[in-house]
Each structure stands twice: as structure tokens, then as C-alpha cells.
Amino acid sequence: MLTGLIGTGNAILLAGLALIIKKFRGHVPGRHSDNALLTIAILLMVFAGAEFGLVGIGQWLVSAAHSVEAWAGPVGAVIVALVILSTFLGVLAAVIFTANEGALTVAFMVPLLCAIPNHGYPAQFIAAIRPPAQQVALAIRAKMGA
Fold first, then answer.
1. Burial of residue 135, with CB atoms counted within 10 A of its CB: 0-12 exposed, 13-18 middle, 19 or more buried
2. What is the model's pTM?
3. What are the pLDDT digits (tens) for 1-54?
4. Residue 24: count of CB within 10 angstroms of its CB
5. How many CB atoms lie within 10 A of CB 19?
6. How many C-beta neighbours within 10 Å does residue 61 have?
7. What contacts 89, CB < 8 A, 6 or more positions away?
8. DSSP of the chain, one letter per residue?
9. Which of 1, 33, 70, 104 sits most deeply, having the most CB atoms within 10 A of its CB?
10. Count of C-beta atoms within a 10 Å radius of residue 117
11. Is the pLDDT of residue 135 over 80?
């Protein structure tokens, strides 16, 4: 039953690695290494969110959001679209300009929010991000010997 809820563990692996990078990024020498490592951690969290959307708990959260959106009608669709856009732009600004720890926690939610609409740019984004997320998780597993 647990494997149905967490799947292969790729999301946990990627999120855990991102949190480890966040925690120990100050120990790496270099003037710009802190910001670069935090950016890498944010991207790993986006990948973790994409992997989390494929497992039981993530699919349950997305279906619950579908129910709320259907209950609210057209207003719900607009609210979901605005939340997706603001969250996506916030994380994108953190990746491009200056990474911060607040974006790290929000980055996990971006793929889950993008999985709510069944069409449009958010659905295209989630379809485009899942294959690289799986490849990164498999590469990390191979390096760890798992």
C-alpha cells in the first residue's frame, strides 16, 4: 500500500537532495556558489514536484483540486489560473535572478498546480518537465548505487 502512495521514491529522493543542498550550501567555497547551489536546489524541487504528481498522494491532491475547481465553476478556473501564474512567475524569477529559500518551498507546488488544468500551457509545461525529472532521478539513483 505504501508503494502506491509514494511510488518509486523519486520525488522523495529529489526533494531530499534539494534540502541537503540547501542546508550545506554555505560550506562550499566560492563567491557565487551559494546562489548557484540554491538555484540547483530549486530546480530539483520542481523536478520532485513533477515526480510527486505521478504517485498516489499527488494524484489524490490533484483530483481534490479538480473537485474544488468544478464546484466553484468558471470562477474556480480563473482563481486556479491566477494561482498557477503567480506561483510559476515567482519561482521563475527566483531561478533567473536571485534564488531564495522561500522559492524552494514553493517550487515543489508548481508542477502540482500545473497538473490541475487538463489543457493549455500548464499542461504542456508538466508534460515537458516530467521526462527530465525522471532522468535526473534515475541518474542520481545510479550514482548512489540504488
1. exposed
2. 0.77
3. 455 555 667 788 888 888 888 888 777 777 667 778 888 888 888 888 888 877
4. 10
5. 16
6. 16
7. none
8. -HHHHHTTSHHHHHHHHHHHHHHHGGGS-SSSHHHHHHHHHHHHHHHHHHHHTTSHHHHHHHHHHHHHHHHHTHHHHHHHHHHHHHHHHHHHHHHHT---HHHHHHHTHHHHHHTSSSSSHHHHHHHHHHHHHHHHHHHHHHHHT-
9. 104
10. 18
11. yes
pLDDT in tens, 68-80: 777 777 787 788 7
Place of cell 465553476: 73
C-alpha cell at 126: 508538466
R_g (Cα) of the chain, nearest Å: 16
**Residues 15, 118: Cα–Cα separation, whole Å:** 25
* Alpha-carbon gap, residue 17 to 22, rounded angstroms: 9
Higher pLDDT pick, 33 / 82: 82
**Look-up of cell digits 550545506:** 24
Instruction: Decide which of 70 and 139 is more confident.
Output: 139
